[in-house]
Amino acid sequence: MNLVIAVDGPAASGKGTIAARLAAHYGLPYLDTGLLYRAVGLAVLDAGGDLGDAETAAKAARALDLASLSDNPRLTDRGAGEAASRVASHPGVRAALLKLQQDFAAQAGGAVLDGRDIGTVIAPGAPAKLYITASPEVRAERRWKQLTARGEVIAFDDMLDDIRRRDARDAGRDDAPMVQADNAVLLDTTDLGIEAAFDAARRIVEAARARAGI
Description:
By secondary structure, the protein is an alpha/beta fold. It contains 9 helices and 5 strands. It has a single domain, classed as Rossmann fold (3-Layer(aba) Sandwich), CATH 3.40.50.300.
């Protein structure tokens, strides 16, 4: 059995940092699936399209190339995050990106993927599943510090509103909503630094490996 590690959770929970660290620790390829949706959202905006137009968004998703994710600094800004959350609500977008993500998860040896529906939709058979979360206030503070350090100007209260709005949209969509998989282990990082959070995640994965005999 391949070691596939599914890492899900809301924005700024620490899942991306933890997933990247797990990938490096186990020598596995890593995919931040949120970048796919951010790239689709930016493609729609750059073409002058409407993020609420399902067909326009799906067309952008069908044209997406993984190679385009590696050198676009705009993918990490606030606007890209909001655009990603909006286009991700379209079933056609999720359908267009499904095989790409599943193929990544199915490669020999295993992989680490993080997102909102990895353990429930993309890789439901993954032997190791984590659901990373933290309080909205802590997540907003993390994201606010990250953005302001890059020179973006945003009030903390606006950042907190963004976080809560994205949570509601991601958890409330009809197609592949953000939800903890039944067999995923919950890891709350509200009071954890990155080293403590990574160590807890590594121990969760090791327990899953032992159960699966990997």
